[in-house]
Amino acid sequence: MTKIGLIRHGSTFWNKEGRAQGHTDNALDEEGKQQAAAIAERLSGEQWDFIYSSDLLRARQTAEIIAERMGIELAGTVPGIREMNGGLIEGTTEAERFKRWGSDWKTLDLGMETPEAARIRGSQAIRDIAAKHPGKNILIVSHGAILRHSLRGLVPNLSVDEVLKNTSITRINQHEGAWNCELYNCVEHLDI
């Protein structure tokens, strides 16, 4: 059985401001670094063989903090698990989108990646990582929207309506070609 721990990156200033990040390469804020240290502490009592990250800075910083504290090397960055492209909405808040494009902004072609494209891209990237390390325990640090859509591709019956929290862990495993989820959006390591 191959076990995958999917981790959303730590918080950024744009998270706090409610700004769409997409491919914008934002760094973690101080709280995000503390969250990464907290998830690393939680995971340090478990066996993890590899850690991968999205190629965006906020995920890579989270993965580097986890890797350093756990004494494992960052195995690589994977563009396939990069956050969904937000097109013209990147850097804007919901209120700014309403003001700029009106209440129907979600129906406009603003250059955003579609959920279907994200589902295909993200789930394939996770399958590829799992295929490289059969029977191993692998951490993948990525982003909220792409992880939720990827999970729809891997575990179609799983409800992923709940937005993933910063540094939450979702554990999935693959056994004989089938995927299942044993833990979703867990943040017990944070003082929430």
Task: Provide tags for this entry.
192 residues; alpha/beta; 6 helices; His_PPase_superfam; phosphatase activity; PGM_Phosphatase; kinase; transferase
Summarize the structure.
The protein has 192 residues and is α/β, with parallel strands linked by helices. It has helices at residues 13-17, 30-43, 57-70, 94-101, 115-132, 144-154; strands at residues 2-8, 50-53, 74-77, 137-142, 169-175, 178-186. The radius of gyration is 16 Å and the shape is globular.
CATH superfamily, by name, is: Phosphoglycerate mutase-like
Number of strands: 6
What is the highest CATH level, the class?
Alpha Beta
Q: Which oligomerization state do the chains in this entry correspond to?
A: single chain
The structural domain count equals 1
Principal-axes geometry comes out as globular
At the fold tier of CATH, the topology name is Rossmann fold
Structural class: alpha/beta
* Biggest β-sheet description: 6 strands, mixed
Report how far the terminal alpha carbons are from each other. Answer: 32 Å
- The total count of helices amounts to 6
CATH-defined architecture: 3-Layer(aba) Sandwich
What would you note in describing this structure?
The longest helix is centred in the middle third of the chain and has 18 residues, at 115-132. The chain contains 6 helices and 6 strands; from the N terminus they run βααβαβααβαββ. With 192 residues, the chain is an alpha/beta fold. It has a single domain (2-87, 114-186), classed as Phosphoglycerate mutase-like (Rossmann fold, 3-Layer(aba) Sandwich). The protein has a 6-stranded mixed beta sheet, sandwiched between helices. The chain is globular and about 50 Å long. Helices cover 36% and strands 19% of the residues.
